[in-house]
Amino acid sequence: MSDDAFDPEGPVAQPAHDDAFDRFFRKHKESLLRPLIARTRTVYDADEILMTAALKAYQRWPYIEASADPIGLVRKIIRDCRVDHFRSQARRAGREFLTDDLPTYLADGGTVDELLELRGYD
Q1: For the segment 105-115, what is each residue's pLDDT rounded down to a tens digit?
Q2: pLDDT at residue number 1
Q3: Whole-angstrom distance, CA of residue 77 vs CA of residue 49
Q4: Burial 26-44, CB ≥16 within 10 A → b, else e
């Protein structure tokens, strides 16, 4: 096992459950995505939430697959991920500055002082 942040052979990989999860997700993806789009009002945010939830569901797939209501458990994971997503957006909102007047020296790389001026920009 390596020290990389992403290790494809790490604890996320469960090849024995790939086929069952893949069938489940392909079957239910549209019905899970539609309510998210309605609540988030953007396809990008809805897809981001669904993919985060899919990763969490995949990590817990043996438990979810064995339950009496797997779609209910996945919907709960999606709901929790949606709440986390909106909380994360709220935390970032106070630190982001939307602006059109970024300095033009960025194309040249800028000096250290010029780059330090950009600390408040995301």
Answers
A1: 555 666 777 66
A2: 44
A3: 10
A4: eeeeeebbeebbeebeeee
Q: Is 24 inside any structural domain?
A: yes
- Using alpha carbons, list the distances in angstroms from residue 37 to 2, 40, 48, 54, 68: 37, 5, 11, 16, 27
C-beta contacts of 50-58 below 8 A and 24+ residues apart: 50/78, 52/81, 52/84, 52/85, 53/77, 53/78, 53/80, 53/81, 54/25, 55/12, 56/81, 57/21, 57/25, 58/12, 58/14, 58/17, 58/21
Structural domain harbouring 68: 17-93
Q: Is residue 77 part of a domain?
A: yes
How many helices (H) and strands (E) in the chain?
A: 5, 0
* Residue 58 pLDDT: 92
What CA–CA distance (Å, rounded) separates 104 from 47?
34
- Alpha-carbon distances of 82 from 12, 34, 50, rounded to whole Å: 21, 13, 8
Let me know if residue 60 belongs to a domain.
yes
